[in-house]
Amino acid sequence: MDANELLAWARGPGFDIALTIFVAGMLLRLFEVMALGKKPDLSAARGSGAQGGMRTLVARTLPRKSVFDKEPLRIINGYVLHIGFFIVLFLYEPHIALFDRALGISWPGLPSGLIDAIGAITILSLIAALVFRLNNTVMRFLTTKGDWLAWAVTLLPVLTGYMAYNHLLLPYTLMLALHLLSVELLMVVAPFTKLTHMFSFATARWYQGYQAGRRGVES
Amino acid sequence: MSAPSIEKGIEFIKTEIDAPVASFFSACVHCGMCADACLFYTETGDPKYTPINKVEPMRRIWEREYTLVGKLKALLGLSEPVDAKTFEEWETLVYDGCTLCGRCSLVCPVGNDISGMIRKLREGFAAAGHAPEGLIGASTRAVEIGSPMGLKLPALEAQIKHLKNDTGLDAPMDVKGADYMVLLSSMEIMNFPEYLEAIARIMKQAGKTWTLASKAFEATNSGIQIGVSDIARTLVRRVVDAAEELGVKTVISPECGHAFTAIRWDGANLIGRPYKFDVKHILEVLDEFVEQGLIKTEGKEDAKLTYHDPCQIARKGGVVDQPRNLLQQIASNFVEMEDGGAMNWCCGGGGGVSANERADEVKLTAFNKKKSQLQALGVETLVTACANCRLTLEEGLEENEMDIPIVGLTEMLAEYLVDDDKEKQAS
To answer: Which fold has domain B305-415?
Structure first.
């Protein structure tokens, strides 16, 4: 199999398989959570659960000041990592073209030079995240093998994308094929690692916020 | 209760896992930010006290029982099982190293209610026979005698007699249709009789009818702390039965943190139906009285003082503004502790820790947080609204040779009430 064939496989059957596993896997995880259900709360409510749920869903995006002051760099890096990843994924013109072809919707992108720079920043930010994890006693204590895997499969697509765009190390076609394959690896792995937080962060915040809203307590 | 066993413990934990718990575990990214919110971690520096680590046995059971990946991992022998050793290892983290203060739940970036999970996990630990002796004793006494400290009705009756003899005030018992049914904690009967006197004076001035209930004068609920819903239900039902028999409008939870959680939030869920009465914390009632002009105060305390928010009343109970409104009425030099209000630091003795002698040492280490907070403020008086906080704080201050008197907010307010009799004589 040469680079062109590999690219063709990654663009065709490879992508379809990965997408199927990603969607089915995430739906399965969501089902596994929701199927457990939740008993209704019979205590007399002080406020609105739904309002509390919505509030926490939004509010937890920003840390409390006392939390931020403890480790400002690590927290800022967390934002850089997430925002950088979303920008290169959703605002790079060739990616938008892919979404357009698959879903029939498109939106304006950013100049590719800017995406290139943001890609570089995202890679550095992911590396910084690893350094923070290794240097923090609590994080080292909590880290599992799955965390290393989740980190690696998140880094690879950004790294290979950056290298393909800048024609680094390998011929373009091969690097592009590797880029696609790394995205597919991420899609296949995501539902079975902590990357499930991409949806469960919302249900988790909602559940805590809902209870807080009913009770009229801060959350 | 049938005999405890590891199997039963695991079974109990399985039934406690619901959609919120599953959400929390699948959302955790191991960021470790909950550690810095926990006084057991900040004061010991030991990462084992990281809140999310305290629920690791529950996470293992969730993964194994309720996820496809976990089932596959278990088949291939790739995951750690939960067995007798796990319960032994985690027992001190689940009980001694957590006051259920809930601070961790408020900082988690993905919104995990970690302390809520620890509360649930305790159900399994108690069922497995891995609950601390002190809490087992308190729970047994609560069910068999009627109070965790072994107090019986005659002890309360004696206190009421004293109250009458000393002040001429009455504490009515079993009055049908009263506006308020007042609950007490054992500590208020044994250690802080000032509370009952304060209630009698305040109710008299407010012109409200109130009553104690001979069948349910005790509000504390060790079933909530140890994590045995059967016990918690029995204790809540006593209060519900008494309140509904007497037909009172409102039940007042005393200056006790977890009693409020038990009767205000958990109770209806334990008995499986809503109440036919309202439940309010005493500070909510006092704030209403002041706002409606039913009680009036004169004079103010000049000493520099601060207020320690009991976790279950402020963070988990939402009673944050009321104590501050009340203190504005009666104190001229009130200062806030750092992180005061919903994010206040726990005294270190909540959630059953103070009833668990094995935890004495770590409790005093955890107290260092409060110690440094108080030292930074340099206050002359400490006000709070939980008898358990009060005892824990008194012990901690004494151990650290700090001379700061602690008062309950209700009794302090009663001291500054306008004297009705004097006013009448004057007019």
So the answer is: Rossmann fold (3.40.50)
